[in-house]
Amino acid sequence: MELPLFFIEKIEKQYGKETAKKIEEGLLEEKPVTLRVNTIKSSLEKVKNELEKNNIEYEFLEWNKDALIIKNVREDEIRKLGIYENGEIYLQSLSSMIPAVVLEPKEKENILDMTAAPGGKTTQISAIAENKVFITACEKNKIRYDRLKYNVEKQGVKNINIMQEDSRKLSDYFSFDKILLDAPCSGSGTENVFTPNFSEYLIQKSSKVQEELLTKSLTILKPGGEMVYSTCSILKEENEDIVKKVLKKFKAQIIPINVPQNIPVLPTSIDGALCVCPTKYYEGFFVVKILKKS
């Protein structure tokens, strides 16, 4: 597998040759299977027992007590387990678990997940808050909307309104305590860089949508409310550039993220933001937390 030349040039310009080389190596690594225990339906103890019964080896993650790294089997084997069938676990990459943890959902909060399918982060938000938050989850694509609905039901999420809607078209009369915007992106931090779909055009198209979505999210976030903006991209055109541009239009500020020591990071031009470096365990990912001032 080879990375596109235009992408190599981009990351060398943004990060320097040495860091770009590290990114390239991380993107080429085959990631292990990782999963999240769905604490709405099960417990870490029960999941551990089930894995051990099936001779499946695992290791823990320091920054997320509900996550496990599987060491000796691939996804097909996990999908055969009763705990997968019953929605007691959810297959999810480590990097994609970060935004919901950073959002810190709490009981009785009214939360919007703007681009929610297939539902990993939606169900994680509910699990963190012990199924006691009110979630509005949007997905404009019918097939992905159906997948989101299926996953939410399978995981046992309550107090949720699932809308087949483009979040950019939501009424400005909506108002939320917290918002998660895991924006559509080029996937430059993932194996998507090796597909024909990955292009300059995709990056430009994504950044336009990201700007519109972030503008909408800060419009309908309550004063004093918090939101998380994230992408599975490591390119500033989809991350820092978008955040800086949109924040100029609002009374808002960055809330610094306390990054656990064992998460591999890339430098960013926004103090307090997190950009995860692709490695054997992690996909490239950008996360920033924003407070809308009262």
Low-confidence stretches: none
Strand content: 15-25%
Give the strand tally: 13
Q: How many domain modules?
A: 2
Q: How would a textbook summarize the main sheet?
A: 9 strands, mixed
Calculate the terminal CA-CA distance, rounded to whole Å: 49 Å
The helix/strand series, from N terminus to C terminus, equals HHEHEEHHEHEHEHEEHEHEEEE
Layout of secondary structure:
Layout: H1 5-15, H2 17-28, E1 34-37, H3 44-53, E2 58-60, E3 67-70, H4 75-79, H5 82-85, E4 89-91, H6 98-103, E5 110-113, H7 120-128, E6 134-138, H8 142-154, E7 160-163, E8 176-182, H9 200-220, E9 221-231, H10 240-247, E10 252-255, E11 265-266, E12 274-276, E13 285-292
Parallel strand pairs: 5-6, 5-8, 6-7, 8-9
Antiparallel strand pairs: 1-3, 1-4, 2-3, 9-13, 10-13, 11-12, 12-13
Helix pairs in contact: 1-2, 9-10
Q: Which features does this protein show?
A:
single chain; 294 residues; alpha/beta; Alpha-Beta Plaits; Rossmann fold; 2 domains; 9-stranded mixed beta sheet; 21% strand; globular
Please characterize this protein's 3D structure:
This protein has 294 residues and is α/β, with parallel strands linked by helices. It folds into two domains: 34-91, Alpha-Beta Plaits; 95-292, Vaccinia Virus protein VP39 (Rossmann fold, 3-Layer(aba) Sandwich). Helix content is 34%, strand content 21%. It contains ten helices and 13 strands. It has helices at 5-15, 17-28, 44-53, 75-79, 82-85, 98-103, 120-128, 142-154, 200-220, 240-247, and strands at 34-37, 58-60, 67-70, 89-91, 110-113, 134-138, 160-163, 176-182, 221-231, 252-255, 265-266, 274-276, 285-292. Strands 5, 6, 7, 8, 9, 10, 11, 12 and 13 form a nine-stranded mixed β-sheet that branches. Helix 1 (5-15) crosses helix 2 (17-28) and helix 9 packs parallel to helix 10. The radius of gyration is 19 Å and the shape is globular. The N and C termini lie far apart (49 Å). The mean pLDDT is 97.
